[in-house]
Specification:
The complex is a heterodimer. Chain A is of the alpha/beta class. Chain A contains 9 helices and 16 strands. Chain A has a single domain, classed as Alpha-Beta Barrel (TIM Barrel), CATH 3.20.20. In chain B, helix 2 links the parallel strand 8 and strand 9. The chains are: A alpha/beta, B alpha/beta. The structure holds flavin-adenine dinucleotide (FAD), flavin mononucleotide and FE2/S2 (inorganic) cluster.
């Protein structure tokens, strides 16, 4: 039975990875998860310098999911190279570093620092709804997305995954723009912009007022968007948004994802990633599927 | 280092202690690894409410392998917990957080301050420091003095009530000042848990006296294990892990030295 998938020349032992920002760099989940079992660890977004992030409250629960407005707090690339990369390098899993910035120059600086590191791929976050400048601005119009993708591709020595925002009218336009600009893969979806109001205090619950929604409640939207993008582009898609278990992961693969990432579900079930891997194997046995690649995009009629 | 786990644990006892305040005893071998001031996070059975609820450890019995939690019904999650009965199970994430540095209290006059639902977490501390020179001052709303008897068994205990029905009328700090004036109190170190205004007042008081104060902070959490960066508090120095002036309440905390945090 083959569970390995290949994205932009990088082979993952299985298609299950962690979604950026929900798993740190893996250290915090070591008590629960054997990181060697994962297809890849996708790190929290990292910028050229440390970012403070947003004021608190930064997270809140909503029906079937949560809102977050962390604001891309991160320790900056220097410490990240010293601490997080060597840690992940000691594990038998692919390393995907999520990159954020306010300007193209900031993104490029991080990309260049990572070029000669043991990182397998870089995921470019142009879709974070929680920072006012940069980030999402690049992910909400095709012209800006094209420009940043091209610029990053010109400097990157590793495959580039552009992470798309669902907060757009037509996500296939963004997927096509990323592909045309040279992206090696796309990942989707980032969080959906949401809001929660405390009716007793008559105040916004999150200090940032709005936050990105994730968790099981967003899954049908994410599946639909993965499907639409799979019809629109040829580059591989990493699917995410509300995946909690093997059934969810398989649904994304059937819709066209070559790999999947598990985000908020880690908070609900810290064993979610490894349980999903085991569940996919059980499904393949039960369905007599020898190669997981048979599942990718199998539903399209 | 102890290993964090998510497990289903059995509830061996439940009891209502006061209006809206409940006790739950959980059977878990992890009791052997727990310390005063640490917390666990409990999951509801309602699949629409997915994030775990952080609840401090109020008491630890390593021999019986039980943890005692005392909580106030604050919303739907804690409301659901209050319906649980002996024999039910609950999914628990733990053991989380750093806990109080007990060794700092040894050989000193320690003052333990708890306000409202901040009282349960400091009971475990008072019990762990039994035999040391410890004074506890507990701030309640009214005459429903939950857990007061447990404190009486392990340390000198005073009470303040908002409505003045028992002890000093006012808050914990009013009682502290009153005892100080009487010459009955001269603390070297403070440990506390309670609402933010109380913690702010304690921070100021400790600064005035030039003594260390440990505060247990609360913040909204998602992961509870240090991964999501949802639960940070502002720190006076650059935090080593984050490289900015933010520390994670779930991991570097919930107990912080007052002079290290900006509240
Ligand atoms: C480290 C720590 C220790 C705590 N210890 C205790 C304790 O020993 N006893 C006790 O009664 N309470 C304690 N609390 C507060 C307790 O976590 C909240 O009252 C509880 O989460 C409310 O959940 P709910 O579903 O009833 O309320 P809801 O308001 O419906 O909860 C909605 C969401 O907000 C979160 N939330 C709401 N209030 C708080 C809060 N004050 N702090 C953090 N998250 C909150 C919930 O976890 C949930 O995700 C502690 C909080 C923290 C951070
Ligand atoms: C707390 C939190 C932090 C996140 N941080 C990042 C980030 O730094 N970079 C990024 O590209 N996406 C980030 N995301 C988005 C997730 O990677 C993912 O795209 C989204 O949450 C949807 O998946 P889920 O429903 O499985 O969580 C974050 C999500 C959460 C919940
Ligand atoms: S709750 Fe996630 S880092 Fe503290």
């Amino acid at each position: 039975m083959n569970t390995a998938v290949t994205i932009a020349g990088v082979t993952l032992k299985n298609p299950v990875m962690t979604a950026s920002g929900t798993f740190g760099s893996g250290m915090e989940y070591q008590d629960f998860v054997d990181l060697n079992a994962l297809g890849a660890v996708v790190t929290k977004g990292v910028a050229n310098v440390p970012w403070e992030g947003n004021p608190t409250p930064r997270v809140t629960e909503v029906y079937g999911g949560m809102l977050n407005a962390i604001g891309l707090q991160n320790p900056g690339i220097d410490l990240f190279m010293q601490r997080d990369i060597p840690f992940l390098e000691s594990k038998d899993t692919q390393i995907i570093v999520n990159v954020c910035g306010h300007t193209i120059e900031e993104y490029v600086e991080v990309v260049e620092r990572l070029n000669d590191s043991p990182v397998a791929m870089m995921e470019i976050n142009v879709s974070c709804p929680n920072v006012k400048v940069g980030a999402i601005a690049f992910g909400q119009n095709t012209k800006a997305l094209t420009e940043i993708t091209k610029e990053i591709k010109a400097h990157a020595k590793k495959p580039i995954i552009m992470k798309l925002s669902p907060n757009v009218t037509d996500i296939t336009e963004m997927a096509k723009a990323a592909e045309a600009a040279g992206a090696d893969a796309i990942s989707l979806i980032n969080t959906l912009t949401g809001m929660k109001i405390d009716i007793q205090r008559k105040k916004f619950v999150l200090a940032n007022r709005t936050g990105g929604m994730s968790g099981p409640a967003i899954k049908p939207i994410a599946v639909r968007m993965v499907y639409q993008c799979a019809q629109a582009v040829k580059i591989p898609i990493i699917g995410m948004g509300g995946i909690s278990n093997a059934e969810d992961a398989i649904e994304f693969m059937l819709a066209g994802a070559s790999a999947v990432a598990i985000g908020a579900a880690n908070f609900i079930n810290p064993y979610a990633t490894v349980e999903t891997i085991r569940g996919i194997e059980a499904y393949m046995k039960q369905q007599h599927i020898d190669d997981i690649n048979e599942l990718i995009g199998a539903v399209h009629e | 280092m102890t290993q964090k786990r998510k497990t289903n644990v059995t509830i061996t006892k439940t009891k209502q202690l006061a209006t809206g305040v409940y006790e739950m005893i959980l059977q878990t071998p992890q009791a052997k690894e727990a310390g005063a001031g640490q917390f666990v996070a409990l999951y509801t059975k309602d699949r629409s409410r997915l994030l775990p609820r952080p609840i401090s450890i109020c008491g630890i019995d390593p021999e019986q392998e039980t943890l005692r939690l005392v909580y106030r019904v604050a919303g739907a999650g804690t409301g659901e917990f209050s319906t649980y009965r002996e024999g039910d199970t609950v999914a628990m994430l733990g053991i989380l957080g750093n806990g109080y540095p007990l060794d700092q209290a040894r050989g000193k006059q320690a003052l333990i301050l708890g306000g409202g639902i901040g009282i349960p977490p400091i009971l475990g501390l008072a019990q762990a420091l039994k035999g040391e020179n410890v004074t506890a001052i507990l701030g309640y709303r009214d005459r429903e003095l939950f857990l007061k008897d447990d404190f009486d068994q392990v340390c000198q205990t005073y009470v303040a009530t908002e409505d003045g029905s028992v002890g000093t009328k006012g808050n914990v700090l009013d009682a502290v000042r009153m005892l100080e004036e009487k010459g009955e109190l001269n603390p070297d170190i403070i440990f506390s848990c309670g609402p933010l205004p109380m913690l702010k007042a304690i921070k100021k008081y400790a600064e005035e006296r030039g003594i260390p104060a440990y505060l247990s902070l609360e913040e909204r959490m998602a992961c509870g294990v240090g991964a999501c960066l949802g639960c940070v508090c502002k720190t006076t120095h650059k935090d080593e892990h984050s490289q900015v002036n933010n520390a994670r309440v779930c991991t570097e905390g919930p107990v912080f030295l007052a002079s290290d945090v900006m509240i």
